[in-house]
Amino acid sequence: MSDFAFGGPRGGVIQMAYTVRDLDAAIDYWIKYLKVGPWFRLDHWTGTNAVYRGTASQADMAIAMAFSGHMNIELMQPNDRHPSVYREAIEKKGYGFHHFGRASDDIDRDVGVLEGQGYNPVFRAGVPTGGEVVYMEGGADDPGYLELIPATPAMEDAFTAFWRASVGWDGSDPVRPFG
User: pTM above 0.90?
Assistant: First the structure.
């Protein structure tokens, strides 16, 4: 397993993600108390050809990403009440930890392996960095979902740019555009 340029392990966990009630307040908390930043923000994300539990999804999310060391942190705020994997988690457990993100060189293969281990796919959506993410759920004891993130060159470029901005970050320009 070789590392990505941002230091995350290929095939391993590269992201921890949280649902939040108020994205601005959450970003402020992570900056003030955890010294994590800068944050790269996208006010609207639906994914392309999104499918949640077998049905086309129209859920819209605001997201922000930053790095703490070599770990990508993602904050997600639903913008609407449409059914989604995000709304589902909030209704079941409240706001907080949502998923681990794992880099995958072959999404379909990894979905098959995880299905063999008792996981079920609950959400799929195309992403701008290529391919599609797939959220998997396991048993009731799982702390959250497992997101398979396509390990594309564009994903590595984006995550590496976010990580580089975090190295030696002096607190300036704390919230930046995602693209």
Answer: yes
